[in-house]
Amino acid sequence: MLRRQLLHFGAFTLGGLPVSLVQAQGSSQKKLVVVMLRGAVDGLSVVAPYGEREYAASRPQIALPAPGADDGLLRLDSLFGLHPSLAPLKRRWDDGQLAFVHASGSPDPTRSHFDAQDFFESGTPGRKSTPDGWMNRLLTALPGEPAPTRAISLGQTPPRIFAGLASVASLGLGPKALQRRAIDDPRLQAGLARLYAGDAQLGSTLRDTTEARSEMGRSMAGEGGMDAKADAGAPSARSFAADARRLGTLIRKDAHTQLAFTAVGGWDTHVNQGAARGQLANRLASLGEGLDALCTGLGDALADTVIVVASEFGRTLRQNGNGGTDHGRGNVMWLLGGPVAGGQVLGEWPGLDTAALADGRDLAVRTDFRQVLAPVLERHLGLTETALATVFPQAPQTWRYADRLLRA
Predict the structure, then answer these.
(1) Best CA proximity match to 171, nearest among 285, 11, 315, 47
(2) Does the pLDDT of residue 349 top 80, yes or no?
(3) pLDDT tens digit string along 9-22?
(4) pLDDT tens for residues 82-107?
(5) Strand pairing class (98-105; 331-336)
(6) What's the CATH number of domain 2-404, 2.60.120, 3.40.720, 3.30.1760, 2.60.40?
(7) Considering the entire predicted model, what is its pTM?
(8) Highest taxon of the source (predicted)?
(9) Residue boundaries of the structural domains of the chain
(10) DSSP bridge partners of 308
(11) Dist CA 227 CA 225 (whole Å)
């Protein structure tokens, strides 16, 4: 029972060792939040290429109307428009805090959700044998001092992206996430410490667990922390927004927190996808509200935070017979935050004519997702080229738009 409690409440990488020997100098002010959209969101609806004739022709029921029309896209430039359900984020674009990289994704051609998510989270497309996730490798490579709450996973299940040797703090979903638990009782902590005194691995995990929960509780005091009464009732339909704001607040208040990850599911729209209204539109509205809430929670810390939103692959250009879209290839990555050189759609756009499509059906991948992430890690978080190579081994050459991604 005690071991199960430790596994449930602890820094969840019990299979590895906590970071305790990283002593490099550096600032911990720069932050990175990764939001993964599990299920393959339709990037051709998120940032729709309304300027391409083939876009509307291939989607007679689900194409978004051009900017200016009823329920039309929000104009980004002469080629691209933002889904109208993401209106809360349009001001971030106008303020130069939001950018997109279109026709991006994994170079591996799989259309399996499981494999594609694994490749994104491991950072090694096409290689299933990688034992750890790229954000865990990043945690060990970051300059600066380690801390129990330096990395936080928001969610109920430990994600592949944080698997590895470094301990990661886990924050559950909902308003009860930081409610005081049995593991916070000093008597139980003392008992566990005695129980695991002879096991360096479990003893270190216990220390990381209790220190992380204590640190998060102090940071969130007055914000629904461990000593606050939990809200009653089931989570609302907008639970992502509440969780995202809570995460942003924790990052802002805890000076040690530098990395965070969360995932949002429900994007596998094979049937009745909809256009400006319907299934996808409703989910995008909740996502947009959540990302805006994350920015609000971050407050002044947004100036030093890059938020990356990505999905495992895109969806087919042509709608299927069920009014939806099937598994595709190229997608769109989002970058949000103060350091982002926003107000632009970056990437090499391949076009939508048949000759340009991957396998004659999908938006082609012209930018490897690691080429987008690498300049964020190097220029924003301060990784050296050597450290970057450990996070993304065998990554492709530098992306030619890298210099335009972040502010100087």
Answers:
(1) 11
(2) yes
(3) 344 433 333 333 33
(4) 999 999 999 999 999 999 999 999 99
(5) antiparallel
(6) 3.40.720
(7) 0.83
(8) Bacteria
(9) 2-404
(10) 34, 335
(11) 6
